[in-house]
Amino acid sequence: MSIDEIKRYFDNRNLNQSVEILREKHGELREKIRQLQQLEESIGEKIEHLEHISKVSDSKEIDIREISEREIITFNRCAENEIDIYKKGYRICGVILQIVQIDISVTDKNEEAMFETQIPIKKH
Known about the structure:
Keywords: Coiled coil. The protein is an alpha+beta fold. It is 47% helix and 13% strand.
């Protein structure tokens, strides 16, 4: 309680005012508990996510390759299939690479990941 709240209480003490103050403080306490529970849940999810990432990053199955510089073509929309690429006069000429990015300083939700697919192509 602030000093003003204490002064107000002692200036006009009665049962109704006591109940009103207790209800108000009880509501504030419940809100703080709710906020702390949300924070605890969020921190728990982040810990779980980071532990999962650390297990995945220890994997020996990650294949790192250096890819030489090459030209790319972009579409104003997603290519539905290889036919879209062929219609533009190109053909696939190598390994298709899919990159997934998750900025864990911003989010820990997999559904907020950004995907990029790189398709090496050559002009017919």
